[in-house]
Specification:
Order of helices and strands of chain A: EEEEEEEEEEE
Strand content of chain B: over 45%
Strand content of chain A: over 45%
Distance between the termini of chain B: 41 Å
Number of strands of chain A: 11
Number of helices of chain B: 0
Oligomer: heterodimer
Number of strands of chain B: 11
Largest sheet of chain A: 7 strands, mixed
Radius of gyration of chain A: 13 Å
Largest sheet of chain B: 6 strands, mixed
Order of helices and strands of chain B: EEEEEEEEEEE
Radius of gyration of chain B: 13 Å
Distance between the termini of chain A: 37 Å
Helix content of chain A: under 10%
Shape of chain B: globular
Shape of chain A: globular
């Protein structure tokens, strides 16, 4: 149980285009989903917390107009990187909290999406 | 703000040895801790968790120890295997839904 998927697993795009990443909880309902980015050999940096049916809460320094998050259902959250630039190239990882499992604090992670902006 | 840190960025062990990965945390309000394993190019994988009302918790080949007095957390892996090679992160929760991650320790297991 507690499986989280992401799509796509990797994407290459031209500078200025927008990229949408999907995060799905496959076998549980996730009232809260989280989006992280990770640079090589570094830890995970929380970008935003997304609750189903409400606006996402962004961490300090993360532009909400650039990283659009939608949590339309209990099993799906999307992250859209708008007008992507080379500095947005990174590994984006989502996670979901399983209310029916260990508790809301436990996060189960997706496999990540590698974004390369040319 | 307070943060979680790790003492050893890289740990090299021989196959079959026991591994110990350490983590120091500074937020005394943290009451829940998780260890994650991240293989190259993949998302973090839940290993084991522990709440602050416990000192020790065991899983399959893994044990987490929590010392609240010195704010120290450790992950012990018994009979380390090459497949255990990865980066290990500790994460803490201080009562809200978000987790704070440590910097990570790379575990290298030689055959």
């Amino acid at each position: 149980g507690a499986v989280v998927s992401q799509h796509p697993s990797w994407v290459i795009c031209k500078s200025g285009t927008s990229v949408k990443i999907e995060c799905r909880s496959l076998d549980f309902q996730a009232t809260t989903m989280f989006w992280y980015r990770q640079f090589p050999k570094q830890s995970l940096m929380l970008m935003a917390t997304s609750n189903e049916g409400s606006k996402a809460t962004y961490e300090q320094g993360v532009e909400k107009d650039k990283f659009l998050i939608n949590h339309a259902s209990l099993t799906l959250s999307t992250l859209t990187v708008t007008s992507a630039h080379p500095e947005d190239s990174s590994f984006y990882i989502c996670s979901a909290s399983n209310w029916g499992g260990r508790g809301k604090e436990t996060q189960y992670f997706g496999p990540g999406t590698r974004l390369l902006v040319l | 703000g307070e943060s979680v840190g790790l003492h050893l960025p890289t740990l090299s062990v021989q196959e079959g040895d026991n591994s110990i990965i350490n983590c120091a945390y500074s937020n005394s309000a943290s009451d829940y801790f998780i260890w994650y394993k991240q293989e190259s190019g993949k998302g973090p994988q839940f290993i084991i968790d522990i709440r602050s009302n416990m000192d020790k918790r065991q899983g399959q080949r893994v044990t987490v120890l929590l010392n609240k007095t010195v704010k120290h957390l450790s992950l012990q892996i018994a009979a380390t295997q090459p497949g255990d090679s990865a980066v290990y992160f500790c994460a803490e929760n201080s009562g809200y839904s978000t987790l704070t991650f440590g910097k990570g320790t790379m575990l290298l297991v030689s055959p």
